[in-house]
From TrEMBL:
InterPro entries: AAA+_ATPase, ABC1_TM_dom, ABC1_TM_sf, ABC_transporter-like_ATP-bd, P-loop_NTPase, Type_1_exporter. Residues 1-20, 343-370 are annotated as: Disordered. It is a multi-pass membrane protein. The chain crosses the membrane at residues 41-60, 80-100, 159-178, 184-200, 268-288, 294-313. The keyword Transcription does not apply. It is found in: Cell membrane. It comes from Allostreptomyces psammosilenae. Residues 346-370 have a biased composition (Low complexity). Keywords: ATP-binding, Cell inner membrane, Cell membrane, Membrane, Nucleotide-binding, Transmembrane, Transmembrane helix, Transport. This is Putative ABC transport system ATP-binding protein.
Length: 621
């Protein structure tokens, strides 16, 4: 018996100690190798740009010392040569910087597009349990806002970082040639700042991690309010909803203020240190010049070099702020990427940890094919417990022959929904195993499982497209004529022809242009076009008017014909037409049999539910 051990902590929670920025960067580059493609040429261009900047101060020194104030008087040839050299250096710097920036932008855009795609696909690979552990807006922010923070760093910060490191090193080397004493003074001023930056970096990392979390909370709150706008207005809770949004925005503002105060304080300190360093160079350089320790041209060149030294340091301080913001966003993206799916596809898994956790066999990456025709179903000692919650299903042993019509009934919380999710492998059992057509469910590839087993949910989700576009999610190559033929087979041709544009009728976002009943009709049509061998219906006749219910009932009868059909029944009337009724109570299968047999069991769960249903239908007054 295959057993899948349930996680003991909330899905998506990250209990590892915070990693260093370099560790995050190394892992991130492992997910996005596009960032480092062509890096040697980019670094060469950065080196050329740095050389061009360093040449200008040297040309100025030579112009002053040998071209203007030389021992033999002004030397125009030297001046012309140095002007030409400086001009060439400026052109070289401009061309190299332009080309380098272009390469960095292109590689970063490719890398970011790849990162978004991989993060989005990975979120879809996670089970419904993993996805439910995060607010939907928070998941969206991983693919949008968090990647955007990485984008700003890679496109702008990457340019600054590449140039700055080389420029500081080159400026220091040339400054040592002119005066080791003045060079030591400059480093003496800036070394404490470097040590301070290392300490402040950790605090900034914490501050910007809080900022990114608050951004996710805002997106979650706003998206929930937008999706639930009808409920918000229906229950007159606009004020409470606005207060929740205001609280999320205020929390983000407070976190952003705290991070910016820390960043600005270091930036101001950098300005002060730069001023002290330059002032010290002027004083000490003048004294050295009097003693012959440095020429006038050398002092001017040294001041140019100090500027080349200070500028990347100041840019580095600003970059530090952006870096911590980007690393915080990167960590949130990596947290999702590092979450290993607990429901793995054997067509993609090849015996890794996820495959073993779900019970998929190693060495069978393509999955095991299902037998042709209607599918049987067997549960062997199946149990399921939500992480940190109560047990939803207990020791279920059940066999459903192929081609049978089954109704599953029970009160709210009895285990019906869990049964459906396990059957469609939206999640895996925590104990026992499920066999479909005699094949263990984790061995069936997702592509075959989704093609052979189709679930029609209680409120069929529709995408912002046409009716035909939504039906084609069941079978992408279905033609308009095939869709019309499928509608006729389900007895829905008159309804489809009565729509303004037939199969081309737009349904709006989430199908809001259609009624609840019409959305369910589209979901049934989609299932029929898909042609599954096992059909799982989550009571598709609830919350509709009587006329639509009659149409739905007829469509369901035709759709279930010749297939194994399992209905999660919220109305006991649905169970009457079933070959067998499964009755769940508190996570256990407590009764099973035909409707006529179960309704006659005195004190039985089904008999009690049936009596309650009869009482609800009895006219009042």
């Amino acid at each position: 018996m295959s057993v899948h051990t349930a996680p003991t902590r909330p899905h998506g929670a990250d209990q590892r100690p915070p990693e260093s920025g370099w560790a995050t960067l190394r892992r991130a580059l492992g997910h996005t190798p596009e960032f480092t493609q062509g890096l040697p040429l980019t670094l060469l261009l950065a080196l050329l740009a740095t050389v061009g900047r360093i040449v200008v101060p040297v040309a100025v020194q030579q112009t002053i010392d040998n071209g203007i104030a030389g021992a033999g008087g002004p030397d125009l040839d030297t001046v012309r040569a140095m002007v030409a050299l400086a001009t060439g250096a400026v052109v070289l710097t401009a061309v190299a910087t332009w080309w380098m920036n272009l390469r960095l932008y292109r590689s970063s855009e490719r890398g970011l597009a790849s990162l978004r795609t991989r993060a989005f696909r990975h979120i879809h690979d996670l089970s419904v349990l993993h996805q439910a552990a995060h607010m939907r807006g928070s998941l969206v922010s991983r693919v949008t806002g968090d990647v955007d923070t990485v984008s700003r760093f890679v496109q702008q910060g990457g340019v600054i970082l590449v140039i700055s490191v080389g420029q500081v090193a080159a400026a220091t080397a040339i400054m040592l040639v002119y005066s080791w004493q003045l060079t030591l003074w400059v480093w003496f001023c800036f070394l404490p700042l470097v040590l301070l930056l290392r300490t402040n970096q950790r605090r900034l990392a914490t501050a910007y991690a809080a900022v990114r979390e608050r951004v996710g909370a805002i997106l979650a709150t706003v998206s929930e309010a937008v999706v639930g706008a009808a409920a918000v207005r229906a229950h007159a809770i606009e004020r409470r909803t606005l207060e929740r949004a205001d609280a999320a925005i205020d929390a983000h503002l407070a976190a952003q203020d705290a991070a910016q105060r820390r960043a600005v304080s270091v930036s101001i300190l950098t300005e002060v240190v730069a001023g002290v360093a330059i002032g010290g160079v002027l004083v000490a350089g003048t004294l050295l010049g009097v003693d012959g320790g440095i020429s006038l041209g050398g002092l001017v060149a040294f001041l140019f070099l100090v500027s080349l030294f200070v500028t990347p340091v100041q840019s580095g301080v600003e970059l530090l702020t952006e870096t911590q913001n980007a690393l915080a966003g990167w960590r949130r993206v990596l947290q999702i990427m590092d979450t290993e799916p607990d429901v793995s596809d054997p067509a993609r898994a090849s015996g890794g940890a996820a495959a073993r956790a779900s019970g998929a066999p190693a060495g069978r990456p393509g999955g095991t094919p299902l037998p042709a025709g209607p599918l049987s179903l067997r549960f062997e000692g199946v149990g399921f417990a939500y992480p940190g919650g109560a047990t939803a299903l207990r020791e279920l042993d059940l066999e459903i022959p192929a081609g049978r019509r089954i109704a599953v009934v029970g009160e709210t919380g009895s285990g019906k929904t869990t049964f459906a999710k396990l059957l469609t492998r939206l999640m895996d059992p925590t104990s026992g195993r499920i066999l479909l057509g005699g094949v263990p469910l984790p061995e069936v590839s997702f592509a075959e499982l989704r093609g052979r087993v189709v679930m029609v949910p209680q409120d069929g989700f529709l995408f912002d497209s046409t009716i035909a576009g939504n039906v084609r999610y069941g079978r992408p190559d279905a033609t308009d004529e095939e869709i019309r033929q499928a509608a006729a087979e389900l007895g829905l041709a008159d309804w489809l022809d009565g729509l303004p544009h037939g199969v081309r009728t737009p349904v709006g976002q989430r199908g809001e242009s259609l009624s609840a009943g019409e959305r369910q009709l589209v979901a049934l049509l989609r299932a029929h076009v898909a042609g599954p061998e096992l059909l799982l219906l989550d009571e598709a006749t609830s919350a509709v008017d009587p006329a639509t219910e009659t149409r739905l009932t007829g469509a369901l009868e035709r759709l279930a014909g010749g297939r194994t059909a399992i209905t999660i029944a919220h109305r006991l009337s649905t169970a009457r037409a079933a070959d067998e009724v499964l009755v769940f109570d508190s996570g256990r299968l407590v009764e099973r049999g035909p409707h006529a047999e179960l309704v006659g069991i005195e004190g039985g769960v089904y008999a009690r539910l049936h009596a309650s249903w009869i009482a609800q239908r009895r006219p009042v007054g």
